[in-house]
Amino acid sequence: MLCAMCGNDQARVYTRRTESGETKLYLCPDCYRRFMSGKASDTKNVRRACPSCGTTLDEFRKTGYLGCADCYSAFREELIPTIRVLQGRLYHTGKDPVRALGDEQAELEEELADAQKTGDKFLEQRIRYRLSVIHRLLSGGDE
């Protein structure tokens, strides 16, 4: 994790007790010394920003959008809980092709029933062909 103040050096976690409770500061040792000496007056002045694009953590919290791929590294600790809530897991597992084919199969079966009601033989034939392809894919064959 990078320093919240300078955004350049590797940060360490410092816990500071205040009247409102404990505050965790992610600062490099140099910035921590400056902070504790009074040159940086309070934690509100500490604005974390992505070193690549300059997007701040406050901007992400307001908009829900990150500026670039490096933002994921810069704001990793803050993003983990959000990602877990939204995705259910931390790592992207990709699309589920079997489920997608199953969904398409269900839709095509409905379209086939409609085509049979209207008597559209050409559409019926096209849908049956696609259903046969899906059936082969789901049973382990190649397209």
Round the mean pLDDT to the nearest integer and report it: 78
Distance between termini? 47 Å
Biggest sheet layout: 2 strands, antiparallel
Structural class: mainly alpha
Discrete helix count:
6
Give the beta-strand count. 2
Task: Kindly describe this structure.
There is one protein chain. This protein has 143 residues and is mainly alpha-helical. The protein has two domains: 12-87, no CATH class; 97-138. Helix content is 50%, strand content 10%. A hairpin with a 2-residue loop joins β1 (12-18) and β2 (21-27). The longest helix has 22 residues, at 97-118. Mean pLDDT is 78; it is low at 38-45.
Question: How are the secondary structure elements laid out?
Answer:
Blueprint: E1 12-18, E2 21-27, H1 29-37, H2 57-63, H3 71-74, H4 76-87, H5 97-118, H6 121-138
Helix pairs in contact: 5-6
Keywords:
143 residues, mainly alpha, two-stranded antiparallel ribbon, 6 helices, 10% strand
Question: How would you sum up this structure in a few lines?
Answer:
Helix content is 50%, strand content 10%. It has 143 residues and is mostly helical. The chain has a two-stranded antiparallel sheet with strand order 1-2.
